[in-house]
# Entry
Amino acid sequence: MPTFTEQRTAAEARYAEKRPLSKELFDRASTVMPGGSTRSVLDVQPFPFRVASASGCQLTDVDGLTYIDFLGDYSAGLLGHDPAPVRAAVHSALENGWSFGGVHTDEIRAAEAVVNRFPSIEQVRFTNSGTEANLMALQLARHHTGRDRIVVCDGAYHGGLLYFGHGGEALLAPFDFTRVNYNDSEALSIVDGSVAAILVEPMMGAGGCIPASREYLEALRRRCDESGALLIFDEVMTSRMSAGGLQQRTGVMPDLTTLGKYLAGGMTFGAFGGRSDVMAAFDPARGGTLTHGGTFNNNVVSMAAATAALSEMLSEESLSQLFVRGESLRSRLNELFQTSTLPLVATGVGSMMAIHTVDGPVSGPQDLEHSDHELKQLLFHEMLHRGCYFAPRGFISLSLAIADEQCDIFVNAMSDAIDAISASQ
Ligand SMILES: *Cc1c(COP(=O)(O)O)cnc(C)c1O
# Structure
């Protein structure tokens, strides 16, 4: 009976054999980029397949293999790979030139669209990434409160310099962080008059698609009100859950919100915004003393793309359809997992979910400590072998290009993969 490790080794050999060109390009990439890539999360064992083109919900690699894309660029690819309104807006913006070194009109449109959608955002500023948006929001909270401590959740990911999981420590931005367990309302009793902000996702995304309980969200709001700390919702991922984000769905409002990923239709993007009296720190006319730099903050491509994505594609209706499709896929997967003897469970909200190799339940990253890593890698390869791409760590985010038909294919492939793995056990 082969172990998961032995099966995984065989699956990786099968993977490598079918992808000679990706292997060759990986070796070439590795001489000029450490690890052969410039975005660590894209690492795949034994080497990543290299994408040649993408269209709709399909990826094609340099060896000519195709995959249905259930990863959706870790949620940044919400619109699919060739959303026509975004393409048209970007082309048309480029006709008028770029790198203005001056303000223009699309940034107003993009800002109006953001402010009109998200209930707690009265004013907004743009950045180039979600990481930058969170760094700016944290500094803004420190400035506003005159305090230094920042409360975050263990295992959370808030950007390249704000990762609170295993291995994140060395690159952590040097703030005075205090970590608490996610969904643990009692742990919030440590939030006192020294805390500038709590930075938290209303569903932990990269940390494992773990939803916050309603009680926890209310406890966060209450502790912030009592202590004078600002509540910052990182909605870089979760803002897709409705036109007004997950905050609109839950009704619990933060003081500041950070955004990123899909909102500029797949172009470089980040934003932070919220209460006007807090954002006034950047407004000299209201006595604000902070400056916020960023050469590409209002770059014409992202601003045009964001305007088109927000006004033409991300309607309440299309987002709620996608939400329902995701809920249905997750429950079908869990039904399947319950009939299997393998330790598998899917968690998530709406169109984002994660497959974990534990028995569950999962209410925080601490419940994932005993995940079966070998089974997870094996499942990734068995699904890829069946033409379904999602993250090696089990993360799935549906794009608008995924229809019910692709979800059926996914569930069938999963059933088949589970059978293949179990039969070899
Ligand atoms: C991806 C992500 C970020 C970082 O955004 P980048 O644009 O990659 O810097 C921050 N917070 C959350 C929740 C994310 O998922």
In short: The chain has two domains: 4-78+316-423, 84-313. The mean pLDDT is 97.
